[in-house]
From TrEMBL:
Residues 25-183 form the GAF domain. Belongs to the CdaR family. This is GAF domain-containing protein. SUPFAM superfamilies: GAF domain-like (SSF55781). Pfam families: GAF_2, GGDEF_2, HTH_30.
């Protein structure tokens, strides 16, 4: 075998070298290697360039000429497998001069690789030449050329040319590989530079938001301004709920759906009641899956002050999350400040109410009264709003605080001056009137006002109702204590009857005040003395005399109306009234006896509910 190249081969090699050095793109070079190699070696009817995959210990087809590439891409040759694998293992150029040698070498193919080879080539080669590619003394691949023409066989001279080509290919691949590494390094540096630029911008934005929030707090702007700034700066819908799910501040687009607000409230309440919040917000799809909802805690365990609900179209960026978490800290401080202001004001209200309830009117009480613009000679009315059923202390405290705020707002909107304080399970209100007002007018107006307040409370998701007691209006600050006692008696009356969600005015209690001012035993004795024989008679005879007496008194002693309500004839009614007089030994025309009967009848239902009557 000649070790030197002929003049023609040198020309061909120069041609191949020029092509391989015309590009630094590794994929282009690999394809060019095969195109040029097949074109300059006469016997080559096609060929494949295999590169060694060190990690998987296989040779994979990277480029081919005149074969079915999509099939060859699946071929994975082990070192020593087939002609290519043998050349790789031998680390020298091998020539398979005839089909017998080709068949013997290809017999080592796996079943899968044999099938893929036969699908990718027109027929089994008549001869094949395989030359390993060396880079820095290490075999990195193999060029395999096949002859499918029986008149064209590879000869020894082809080995010299192919080895020279593989040497040029190795140099070109190394240069392309270095260029790719350099190119990747540049891209990585560009990527890192972009990341640093983005992070710097994000950090600057975050610092700007933090500083702006600090300025808002220092300027005393309050919760609405804080949320308004965040909404404008970040572009998200923001809803701030307190610990019982009341919306206390918000900033969102004008078309933000009401149902999304309620969904956010429900989710916030669930989070506040549940096991707590994660370190990073979890998202929930709302509004036909077009809007995401994230909830962040305001405050820390065990004293969560509320939750910030954030509605967004896309996932919130980490920078915005950081800003919102900082905002939650600011919001919690603002809530604590607001609560401190409220508690201080409520404490002053409470000190005045406690002093008045004890009948004190010393200089200290008078000074507090003047602070709230209470005229010592004015007119005063007390109201007590009682929570019917809330066992949880923290929830009760929060609801009472809301009740106090709602009451203050309701009275201010109606131009009524007053003070409000929390006391156990209720709030106590004292309204002040500068000049004498009609007792009927004041009582009716206040009843309508607290009725609206009660309805507003019923719409809340607090899981409780309220009962309201209203005292009478009295002249002079000293008499405010009497109105407080009357309001308290109204609450006592409601509770003693096992009722809830009631509004009772002391002025409207009428004779039922006796239930509050006398012992039940005395009242029961009185009722039994007056009505006992009639009650006994009705029970023993299954009579209708007690209902008849009730109907007659209810219709103001009008026989016809009472008879119609009982669906009886007037004569029957008159007969029953005569029988009642006989059984009780009284005359219904006697004013003093009639008064006793009327009073006993008024007491009967309440005492019967208490189970005190026979």
């Amino acid at each position: 075998m000649k070790e030197t190249l002929s003049h023609r081969q040198l020309q061909l090699l120069i041609q191949v070298s020029n092509v391989l050095n015309s590009s630094l793109q590794i994929d282009t070079i690999i394809d060019s290697i095969m195109v040029q190699t097949v074109s300059v070696i006469d016997a080559a009817g096609g060929g494949v360039l295999f590169l060694y995959d060190k990690e998987n210990d296989v040779l994979t087809a990277k480029s081919d000429s005149k074969f079915k590439s999509n099939i060859l891409e699946e071929v994975r040759l082990k070192p020593g497998e087939s002609m290519t694998g043998l050349a790789f293992t031998a680390k020298q150029c091998l020539i398979f001069s005839n089909r017998t040698e080709v068949e013997r070498a290809t017999a080592t193919l796996s079943a899968k690789n044999m099938r893929l080879m036969m699908e990718s080539i027109p027929t089994l080669p008549y001869s094949t030449i395989c030359a390993p590619i060396f880079l820095k003394g290490e075999c990195i691949g193999v060029i395999t050329l096949d002859s499918f023409d029986p008149s064209q066989r590879f000869i020894a001279e082809d080995i010299n040319l192919l080895q020279a080509i593989t040497h040029q290919a190795a140099v070109a691949l190394e240069k392309a590989s270095l260029y790719r590494e350099q190119e990747n390094a540049v891209k990585q540096l560009e990527h890192l530079n972009n990341m640093i630029t983005e992070q710097n911008l994000a950090l600057s934005r975050s610092v700007e938001i933090h500083n702006s929030l600090a300025d808002l707090v220092l300027n005393g702007e309050g919760l609405p301004s804080i949320l308004g700034f965040l909404h404008k700066k970040i572009g998200l819908q923001l809803l701030l709920f307190d610990e019982i799910g009341e919306l206390i501040a918000a900033s969102h687009d004008s078309d933000f759906p009401e149902e999304d607000i309620e969904r956010a409230r429900s989710t916030a309440i669930s989070q506040l009641k549940g096991s707590g919040f994660s370190n990073f917000p979890t998202y929930e799809q709302i509004h036909d899956d077009r809007t995401r909802l994230a909830i962040l805690p305001v405050g820390t365990k065990p004293r969560l002050l509320g939750a910030l609900a954030i509605a967004a179209r896309d996932e919130i960026s980490t920078v915005d999350i950081s800003a919102l978490e900082h905002a939650c800290t600011v919001l919690s401080l603002e809530l604590v400040k607001n609560q401190a202001v409220f508690d201080a004001e409520e404490r002053m209200h409470g000190e005045l109410i406690d002093g008045l309830s004890k009948g004190q009117l010393d200089e200290s009480i008078l000074q507090k009264a003047r602070l709230f613009d209470f005229d010592q000679n004015g007119y005063f009315m007390a109201i007590i709003v009682h929570l019917d059923n809330v066992d949880d202390f923290q929830k009760r405290t929060s609801i009472l605080r809301h009740l106090a705020s709602m009451a203050n707002r309701a009275f201010q909107q109606n131009h009524l001056k007053g003070i409000v304080a929390k006391r156990q399970d209720q709030i106590v209100v004292i309204l002040a009137f500068q000049q004498k007002v009609s007792t009927t007018f004041a009582s009716q107006n206040v009843k309508e006002l607290v009725s609206l307040l009660q309805k507003e409370i019923a719409l809340k998701s607090w899981g409780t109702t309220v009962s309201i007691g209203i005292g009478r209006i009295h002249s002079g600050l000293m008499m405010a204590s009497k109105s407080l006692q009357e309001a308290a008696k109204c609450i006592q009356f409601i509770k003693s009857n096992g009722a809830k969600n009631q509004i009772i005015s002391y002025r409207d209690l009428g004779v039922q005040r006796l239930l509050l001012q006398n012992s039940e035993g005395d009242l029961t004795d009185f009722m039994e003395e007056v009505l006992g024989p009639l009650i006994t008679y009705d029970k023993s005879k299954k009579g209708e005399l007690m209902p008849t007496l009730f109907a007659w008194l209810e219709h103001n002693q009008k026989a016809k109306e009472a008879a119609e309500s009982l669906h009886i004839h007037t004569n029957t009614l008159m007969y029953r009234l005569k029988r009642i007089e006989e059984i009780l030994g009284v005359s219904l025309s006697d004013s003093s006896q009639f008064l006793n009967i009327h009073l006993a009848i008024s007491l009967y239902p309440a005492l019967k509910r208490k189970g005190k009557s026979n």
